[in-house]
Design a protein that fits this description.
This protein is mainly α and 262 residues long. It has 11 helices and no strands. It has 2 domains: 38 residues; 220 residues, Orthogonal Bundle (MetI-like fold).
Amino acid sequence: MTVTSRREVGDRIGRWLWPALVLLALLAAWETAVRLADTPRWMLPPPTAVAAALRDDRALLLPNAWVTLQEILLGFALALLAGLLTGVAIDSSRTIERALYPLIIASQTIPLVALAPILLIWFGYGLLPKVLVTALVAFFPLAVNTVDGLHAADGETLALLRSLGASPGQRFRLVKLPSALPHLFTGARIAITFSVVGAVFGELVGASAGLGYLMERAGAQFQTARVFAAIVLLALIGVTLFASVALLERLLLPWRRHVTRE
């Protein structure tokens, strides 16, 4: 094994080892503090009680986690499609950019807490309003990063292809799309984590299933360990989805990893 290979292995181990050690230390401190202070479990359960809730309530937690995961994935997919189409439209025309881009920026000043109840009134308590809330949360980083990536395409290369008679579609496929992909994946990593927040917020406003709904019901009944168990599942979903997007980026853009390291 070369020195470079050993260094890469050490970096990979350290990337996971140190966060794991910090997490274990925090959990140990939490457990110790709760037991020494004799804190009531309805106020702050120890990590062992949360682990027990994960085990004992799995028949309740897992179906609701599946509902939330559906909302996250559908909302993210809708935001991805809308963000791509919006980004391409803005890049294709200065007029469209002047008309749409300020509106996209301004849309972020509208509080989601005001929109979610309206969507609930329009579409009811089913899956659709939660998907729409999730898509609204995830749309902005996808659209903005797509626009930035398309704008970052090399102008000289585009001019060369134009002089050689390349069509707009060919210029997009050969220059603009490769330029936009790294920015798009950056936006996707942000958007997928925002999607978790959006789905839970939509469920807290009004739902009949999902981890957000379960957390609200459990909190009202002072089943705090179950609330923390749902939070643990949400964290696992968020980390897994973020890692999945990062893995997809490594598979589709292997050159980006080497350029970033250099």
